[in-house]
Amino acid sequence: MIIKKIFNNNAVVAKDCANREIVAMGCGIAFKMNIGEVLDESKIEKTFILKEKEASERFKLLLEDVDSEIVSLCYDIIEYAKNLLDVELNDYVYVTLTDHINNAIKLQKDGFNTSNVIIWEIRKFYSKEYAIGIKALEFIQEELGVELPEDEAGNIALHLINAQVNKRCNIKKDVSKQTKMINDILNIVRYTYNINLDENSLSYERFITHLRFFFQRLNKKEFYCDEENEEDSEDFLLNQVKKKYKNAYSCMLKVEKYLEIELSNEEKLYLTLHIQKVTIN
After folding, report:
1. Could you check whether 51-172 and 175-278 share the same CATH topology?
2. Nearest 5°: phi and psi at 24?
3. Which fold has domain 1-49?
4. Model confidence over 248-258: pLDDT tens digits?
5. Which H or E run includes 134?
6. Per residue in 123-146, pLDDT tens?
7. Which stretches are annotated as coiled coil (predicted)?
8. Does the predicted TM-score (pTM) go above 0.90?
């Protein structure tokens, strides 16, 4: 690989044999090196090949201002998240998360703490991402000696949630709005039935999962009622469920009114069934 740009002793931009632009990092990787020289690949510890051009350019700008130690740590956090979540993450997360953690560390050292007003909802609805955020705080303390507040676990989780990429199209979700709406729907169910929901039950977990995917479909506008294409079987099943689970169906209609959209019969069916299951545990 040929060195094209040197950020510091530990980070460079290089071109490989396939003429791809790569950010390479390693302790002393660029020490006493010059642009145009061949990079000693034995010193490479991490490489970044960002497919999205804008993300790549922003990441290179970030390297000029952020310590390579922090960049390297954020890389490890993102790779750790990819393995645990088993999802594809948008390239831009390398920029957004690194920038956020760098600023959080600066604020902490200056005696300032930022709060996360929806940390409770994140912990509740995005438990995997939140657990990764907690682990990230441990990594930061171990590697950098900086103890960030627990609210930062929620902020890190938000970056991971926003970076999750749908297989058919890239959608950055408005997570704050989504979590509020999920909580509102749960409250509609609670107040309608005048009960406390068992948040540790499998039916509760499945209901939350259904709502999360529902809002993904909503963002892609796949939720509108389409009478011409609906199957007769769905109409029949919905009518049966409507008769059998009158309270759950009535509650579903309240949810539909709250959402201010007309749901398809299929969505009405599944929402009613989930409400029925989550209220009988």
Report:
1. yes
2. -115, 140
3. Transcription Regulation, Sacy; Chain A (2.30.24)
4. 999 999 999 99
5. helix 127-144
6. 877 889 999 999 999 999 999 999
7. none
8. no
